[in-house]
Structures are given as structure tokens and as C-alpha cells.
Amino acid sequence: TYVVTDNCIKCKYMDCIEVCPVDCFYEGENMLVIHPDECIDCGVCEPECPADAIKPDTEPGLEKWLQVNTEYAEKWPNITAKKEPPADAKTFDGEAGKFEKYFS
Ligand code: SF4
Question: Which among 1, 3, 36, 99 is placed 20 to 30 Å from 44, CA to CA?
């Protein structure tokens, strides 16, 4: 599966939603996640993310993000259409430790 990682938080550009063939993104207030059981590993969302936040879970060190995506894809609503990203998205792009500060 692919997973959404830290830099999505507070950036939430949502370009990924437009390209996912199986609509497997779920939306929290500050972040999106991918449902690991629904993702078909096509990879098209990865280069679309302006924040470079989407990675294959085969990359090392992403266990935490696989767990976050798995847990919150069950709790948050499905999102199938792109919305307006936060007006201040650029301000948060690249900030370290966003999960601890802002995750919701
Ligand atoms: Fe959707 Fe493909 Fe990205 Fe999985 S890898 S979330 S199926 S676009």
C-alpha cells in the first residue's frame, strides 16, 4: 500500500484525490490518509503530491504511518472530490514534527 505521511498535515493539497482510481482517501481536519486495504498500489498519487507526503510503505521507517493510515481510514469519512487547500498550506510545508503538533 501507499501511505500518507507527516508533511500532509496542515498542507492537505488534495491533488491525490483527483487521480486515485479507487477513491481510497479519507479526510481528517488537517490530514488525509489512505485505506491500506483499498489501495491497489498503482502509485499514481505519489508524484501528484506537492508536499511529497505520499510514500510506498515498503520504504523503511514508515511503520508508524501505516498504523496511522490504517486506524484513521476507519474513523474518518471518505473523500472523493478535491476541495480548496488551506490558505496557509505553504507556511507549513516542510515543518518538522507536525504529527505531534497538529495532527487531527
Ligand atoms: Fe489510490 Fe493508487 Fe495512490 Fe493507492 S497508490 S492511494 S490506489 S492513487
Answer: 99
ipTM: 0.98
Ligand 1 atom closest to the Cα of residue 40 is 7
Using one digit for the tens of pLDDT, what is the confidence trace for 50-101? 999 999 999 999 999 999 999 999 999 999 999 999 999 999 999 999 999 9
**Cβ atoms 38, 8 nearer than 8 A:** no
Please tell me whether the overall predicted TM-score, pTM, comes out greater than 0.90 for this model.
yes
β-strand partners of 32: 27
Which residues surround ligand 1 with Cβ inside 6 Å?
2, 19-22, 24, 34, 39-45
Expressed in angstroms, the distance from the first to the final Cα of the chain is: 22
